[in-house]
Amino acid sequence: MHKAYKIPTLLGLIVLVGGLIGGIVMINSRQQLIPKAAASPTPQGVALSNVTDTSFTVSWTTTISATGFIKLMSQGKSDRIILDGRDNNNGSQNKRIVHYVLVDSLTAAQTYKFVIGVDNGQFDQNGSPFSVKTAQALSSAPQSDIASGVILSGNGQAAEGVIVYVQLPSGQLASALSGSNGGWAVPLSTIRAENGDSWLNYDLSATVYAIKVDGGPDGIADAILTTAIDKPVPPLKLGNSYDFRQSREPISDATGKQTTASGSSTSDKSGAKSLFDFSSLGPVTPLNEGLTLDNPKKEGEIIYTDKPEFFGSGPAGSSVEIKIESVNPISGETEVDSNGNWSFPATVNLQDGNHTITLQWTDANGIVRYLKRSFVVNAASGDRPAYVSTPSATPTSKSKKPTPTIAPKKSIPATSSGIPKSGGLAPTVVIFMIGLILVITGLFSTVKPNKNLIK
Hints:
The protein is mainly beta. It has 3 helices and 25 strands. Strands 3, 4, 6, 7, 8 and 18 form a 6-stranded antiparallel beta sheet that branches.
């Protein structure tokens, strides 16, 4: 009787199919484990304060801890990044909920534009950069007059690092950041009139004004008081509203429920300006400048060819003016293609050393944008690959805007950002080989002659 050994064959097929399925599952699982970039928290309660002839302050809060900075935009030059003063002191950028950035070393009576940076995102004012004009320089300030006090958290502890806003009628907004003991101080005498052209004129003992404290998710506090009782201001606890003209006790809690305060009302501001509605700054929206430069990808990057190809991405159809500052300057235009890519090859060899590339384009809101980046050519070493320009794309004058042909890139970029690693197919290949061996073994077993049939 002929015996066919089929079990190894079936087993091999099962292992083979199982290996393929298992490999696919492992690859998908591995891809799902790759972290995705989280959206940056949106700045809330953005306010401009302490505007002088040489500086201004930008403050805001976030719902979660995040890093924060201001990018001061300078047309045709490198943008200036200003960190929170607390970051400047310790040499590192920390995550926090309350953000307070002093922008200084400015010129009097000049308009400055800026965007707000939070973690990896940047935010502007409803599609346009924030704008502020510094004040005129004034003569020496009037007699010193400083309001001060202490901020407490909801549980009665000192509230460190919360923003205290102060605004006198017809005056500009002033602010301060509370210290480690919850203490704060704001010089009233250096507050300017609304137009910024003069010091504010107010009564040192009878002016009614308002204070608001912003601790973000930790709560807010507001108070109405007079200049006669602000040295110091009675303690302010987050979550409460006060009218110190009537009582030192809160007139409402965090829910707005009225409490006894000698018949006072939270809506009775007695002429104090309706403050702290920062909606005049407009909606804060994510900034999309629209154009990227991927080679060179970072400031000061080394490029190992004397004839590199510059490229990046952006909105399709956008026109990009490019200038390369070198011994032999290069300038021209290119256009972002339908796939959202642009490319600009160097038409002459660049000497080893430092160079600068500047991109200029107009965004969807009609605002002219600039991106400037330096790079270093080190072609003499000749030991590393780089993106090399090809003769298939030629820069043109500004009167023409053809789209350069993007040549296939056959080498890795000259960057230190790393090379993507391939997926995890090793387990699939191993299991596949085991299954294949078993299948072949099974096939040979089925065709083995039966000696009992040979006569």
